[in-house]
Write a structure and sequence with these properties.
Bound molecules: zinc ion
Distance between the termini: 56 Å
Structural class: mainly beta
Number of helices: 4
Low-confidence stretches: none
Number of strands: 19
């Protein structure tokens, strides 16, 4: 890479992500790098239709010549994720343990997990929406996120992540995952830093309960409305070493 090489402009990166279906054009996993099909050192400019997403493995295959440019172009014309409503699974998102800290909005759920055990930070009617389990000394994250109408947006199942290809934008950069429904509209924001899983924004819908994670706290709706009997707002709480965090229903 030349020192004078400019960064790819953000709007161009977004167009590339959307065109490629938020994952590697070859295999569809939602962890990606931006790659110029015709090398930048040759074309010496960022042109959107020359840039694609490749996962680290297929990026390496292309760089080493095991994956030909013709083959890459074939996949770029017909990205794997454009054929389905969700990305391929990427295994896996690493969380350190055995003591795991979920920071969800301004509430903390902290627990030490025994091997073979699990911890649900948030469970709604028996369904884990934010939690993890420990198997063979690995912490395996579990998250199920929907949009406001209950449609699937993102799932992390025992550490394996898949994302809806119907979202407006999805980024996994550094330690942070962000899903947007439009310009400036963040629907989901999560980061993982060692043993700390931070969720700043998200919607979790297990009928009839909707849980909104926002900067002010958790807001819980039931049967389409919030009321003193049927819903509440949770702000600045802390749950440490309990069997479960926020458990709604049985
Ligand atoms: Zn790939």
């Amino acid at each position: 890479m030349s020192e004078s090489r400019p960064a790819i402009p953000d709007p161009m990166k977004r167009s590339v992500r959307q065109r490629c279906g938020f994952g590697c054009v070859v295999c569809g996993v939602p962890i990606y790098q931006y790659e110029h099909m015709e090398e930048y050192s040759v074309v010496k400019e960022h042109k959107e239709d020359n840039i694609i997403l490749l996962c680290p493995n297929h990026h390496q295959d292309k760089t080493s010549g095991r994956l030909s440019i013709d083959e890459v172009k074939k996949h770029a014309e017909n990205p794997r994720n454009k054929k389905t409503d969700h990305t391929s699974p990427y295994n896996r998102l690493f969380v350190s343990g055995p003591r795991v800290e979920f920071f969800v909005s301004n509430t903390k759920y902290i627990s030490t997990i025994e091997d073979g055990g699990s911890f649900d930070a948030i469970r709604i009617f028996g369904k884990t929406v934010v939690g993890c389990k420990r198997e063979n000394d690995n912490i395996l994250l579990n998250i199920v996120m929907t949009d406001h109408s209950g449609e699937f947006v993102l799932e992390v199942s025992n550490g394996e992540i898949i994302v809806s290809t119907g979202v407006w934008d999805y980024t996994l950069e550094g330690k942070e995952i962000i899903i947007r429904s439009g310009p400036g509209q963040i629907e989901f924001k999560m980061s993982i830093d060692g043993s700390v899983v931070t969720i700043e924004k998200g919607t979790f819908f297990v009928p009839p309960v909707k849980l909104f994670i926002e900067s002010k706290g958790h807001t819980i709706w039931r049967n389409g409305q919030i009321s003193p009997q049927q819903g509440f707002v949770m702000i600045n709480c802390s749950v440490t070493d309990c069997k479960g965090g926020l458990v709604i229903g049985n």
